[in-house]
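stuck on this fold:
=====
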Amino acid sequence: MSKSGLIIRTNERHEISLPAKARIAFSHAELVKMSKAAGAHEGWIDVHLIDFSNAGVGFVSTVFFPRGSVIELVVPDVEDVSKEAMIKCEMRVMRVQMTDRRPAYLIGGAFVDAGERLQAQIETLMNRFNGEGGGHA
């Protein structure tokens, strides 16, 4: 981060449109409690991914996730939901901004632990963006 406070992104971001699910990670479950009004099923909230990079994702949620909280994110395979999720990971919420068109939040997060399994999932999804793996993201 520069002295001005401007955050410079170093990873290429891809605009996408994918359904996903998010919930507060077990490690933060005592810090953040969802109200019944959030409509969570087993803690999961339906969200919509709007951008993706090898460092993190951006999504739209009608439920507020506090900055700094750790959440679990699951992106199902849109072509075959019976397959293993395309992405299953934990991420830290880095930015939260209200949208101006509807009551929702733009949430940006960074992957917490990009181990080998997550790196392979990211690479597979990135290949889809670049037209190397078929499918559509």
The helical segments are 116-129. Residues 116-129 form the longest helix (14 residues).
